[in-house]
Design brief:
This protein is α+β, with helices and mostly antiparallel strands. The protein is built from 20 helices and 22 strands.
């Protein structure tokens, strides 16, 4: 546990990629194989199941520290992280233990069948064995959410150097349904590991936003264009007479899309499709919000199946008859995909159409139709491109529509997390409904550090009410909010829901009376 705690400390001390890679390299060099597997799992979103609730941790901490609710709440709001707050509030001890990360994770897993009082006694005893840093890391193992800037790509880079594998090899080995409790480091990373995992998807190839000079430096015949669909990117896998639906977030979602499984079960064995899961009916995409009703549910009811019908919009064929096709030219992969579609008459299996164009000007005009068709813009792909790993420049570009904009007034604020835990960085904005400001969007990004400090000072001087961590702010600041899409939503007070809202700029040139109205928002509805 000590070496894992030191890793978390080193990762949290720097925002530089090189420093984080050095810290990971140091850990993999000195940690045990089993601890290394668990660190890979933790940073790949395969954390151990939670056995203790955050409410229990908070209550037990307050009892041990002898502090009232209000003081814990004030401390939590100041620190911004529950695990760190508990570690700071507990009485000091001299940590003494000799258990590894793996042994502590096993210890936590064994709490599952314990009564609450037994769990409490064990957690209090564990806290007494840790240093303050180890307490923080231990609490994080329970609550999850290691926000220390270790992306999947960063982890892949570190493991590539450690294991002497290419980044593509490492990325593929980290995909799929592997279990950190049952796999060794050798099995996970060894290049000659031939154990079959029928469910394992390929690492996704991701497009870069189009660059300014692309249209001037590229010739039309080299490229194909498709719509950029607004759904959930996924791979459909049919291997070993089994079917698997993987989201790009490496989540197995078979139970969310039973109608997709129906046609997937009819695909030839050894087939892997790449595409988009879409809310789709009568040849037309439906709002993304309908697709979201499928997620976060343990089961999908007949009512949801009817209200949110789903199709799979395929745009690539990665495996055919058990052969990896990723190194073949895109055009060749698409020809085989077209043949598969023609041989398989399935209403929930769609092909992403290739858009005809002879000039970039013509394609630019086509792109303007995207919002009407419930798509996000265009994808441009080189005809001879292979299917690469991760986000690479040159072969695939995304040409999204320009975002929509609306001017809103800051009406609520909340403190952030981590290094911004003492600053108000999470904002809610309102537009005018008559003489009243109605909330319509939340945004957490778009301002510089200097602007955040300026807004923070305004919030602290102009707080009207407190509702837990939320502050009601005297209206006075106007911000331009950019967003990718808009739709009606009865769940929101304004009756409007936005896709990916963020702050475009601080409109210091405008008074609150010049902010937009709810009518302005509704005029943008499709």
């Amino acid at each position: 546990m000590q070496i894992f705690a030191e890793l978390i400390h080193r990762l949290d001390q720097s925002t530089k990629t090189g420093d984080k890679l050095d810290a990971l390299a140091w850990f993999f060099r000195y940690a045990s194989d089993s601890d290394s597997v668990w660190v890979i799992a933790i940073f790949s979103h395969r954390r151990p199941k939670r056995q203790v609730s955050t409410k229990q941790l908070r209550t037990w901490c307050q009892e041990k520290a002898g502090i009232p609710d209000w003081l814990f709440e004030e401390s939590y709001q100041s620190v911004g992280d529950l695990a760190e707050t508990i570690a700071l509030l507990l009485p000091s001890t001299i940590g003494t233990h000799n258990l590894s990360l793996t042994e502590w994770i096993d210890w936590l897993r064994n709490l599952e069948k314990d009564a609450e009082e037994v769990k409490k006694t064990k957690i209090l005893t564990a806290w007494d064995q840790f240093t303050s840093l180890e307490r923080f890391v231990f609490n994080k193992l329970i609550t999850g959410g290691f926000r220390i800037g270790v992306s999947q790509n960063l982890l892949i880079q570190a493991l590539s150097k450690f294991a002497g594998l290419s980044q593509a090899q490492v990325a593929h080995r980290l995909m799929g349904n592997w279990n950190p409790e049952k796999i060794s480091l050798q099995e996970l990373l060894h290049p000659d590991n031939s154990e079959e995992d029928y469910s394992k998807p390929y690492p996704f190839f991701l497009a870069h936003p189009i660059e300014i000079d692309f249209l001037e430096s590229s010739t039309v015949p080299e490229w194909i264009a498709e719509w950029k669909w607004d759904g959930i990117r996924g791979q459909l896998i049919r291997r070993g007479q089994q079917s698997f639906i993987w989201s790009r977030g490496e989540e197995l979602v078979n139970d969310k899309f039973p109608e997709i499984l129906e046609f997937l079960d009819q695909l030839p064995d050894g087939t892997v499709l790449d595409g988009e899961l879409l809310a789709y009916q009568n040849g037309v995409p439906l709002p993304f919000s309908l697709l979201q009703t499928r997620m976060g549910r343990k089961s999908v009811s007949k009512k949801i199946l009817q209200e949110a019908p789903v199709s799979f919009m395929a745009f690539d064929l990665l495996e055919w008859e058990g052969q990896d096709l990723r190194n073949l030219p895109l055009q060749q992969r698409k020809m085989q995909l077209q043949a598969l579609k023609e041989a398989l008459d399935q209403p929930r299996f769609e092909l992403s159409p290739t858009l005809a164009f002879t000039t970039w000007e013509e394609l630019t005009r086509t792109r303007e139709e995207a919002r009407t068709l419930q798509t996000e813009g265009l994808m441009l792909k080189k005809k001879d491109s292979s299917y690469e790993t991760g986000r690479k420049r040159g072969s695939w570009w995304k040409w999204k529509l320009n975002p929509m904009h609306i001017d809103g007034v800051l009406i609520y604020a909340q403190k952030g997390h981590g290094r911004r835990a003492d600053l108000f960085t999470d904002y809610t904005f309102g537009v005018w409904d008559g003489e009243v400001l109605v909330s319509f969007a939340k945004a957490y990004s778009g301002l510089t550090d200097a602007e955040i400090r300026e807004v923070d000072a305004y919030v602290k001087k102009n707080t009207k009410e407190k509702f837990g961590p939320v502050r009601t702010v005297t209206p006075g600041l106007v911000f331009e909010i950019a967003f990718e899409g808009i739709q009606a939503s009865p769940r929101h007070k304004s009756g409007i829901a936005l896709r990916f809202p963020r702050i475009a700029r601080w409109r210091k040139d405008k008074t609150i009376e010049q902010a937009n109205s709810i009518e302005d928002l509704k005029a943008l509805l499709p």
